[in-house]
Specification:
Low-confidence stretches: none
Structural class: alpha/beta
Shape: globular
Mean pLDDT: 89
Largest sheet: 6 strands, mixed
Number of helices: 4
Number of strands: 11
Distance between the termini: 39 Å
Radius of gyration: 15 Å
CATH superfamily: Metallo-dependent phosphatases
Strand order of the largest sheet: 1-5-6-7-9-8
Number of domains: 1
Length: 192
Amino acid sequence: MPRPAEPPVRVPGDAWRRLLLLADSHGEIAAPLLDVAREVDCVVHAGDIGAAVVLERLRVVAPWIAVRGNNDTAAASPVADRATLAALPAVASIALAGGDLVVLHGHQYPHAAQRHAALRRDHPAARAIVYGHSHKLVVDTARRPWVLNPGACGRARVGPGASGLLISIEGEAWEVALVGPFPPAPRRRLSA
């Protein structure tokens, strides 16, 4: 399985104790997740943002870190958003108390049945790995590194609605909690 071509962008986050994990907004984000974002130290978005307005909405409520997904390309993005989305890294590694959180979109690992094994193989030093792409909520904490997928934070195409995950850190201990799912909102794209 190929590794992402770019090395991870290293981000210090030692003081962060609550992180909201999101993915697959595709141009919209569920309002209840924006409410949760107001109460965290950082929002982590695992790609397929879809429109720069999603990042702007997040910036207003909390600091954020985001990676580029397979739909954050020039061909799939609004013209005005192409530079913003193209500038996002493919992989980020956030240094947190108790270990690193690796963030990537997951399209780099096309074989779903082997995805978790491949992620663990490629990022063995991580405490946890968060990815998106499948829109399927996953909390695999059976062994380290944990493998987490918050599902889709916009209009979910699988599952009961928009969701996210909340990582809470106390000392070096981590806990993961589900946020949502929230029923789908009427279909509309965010506007600035």
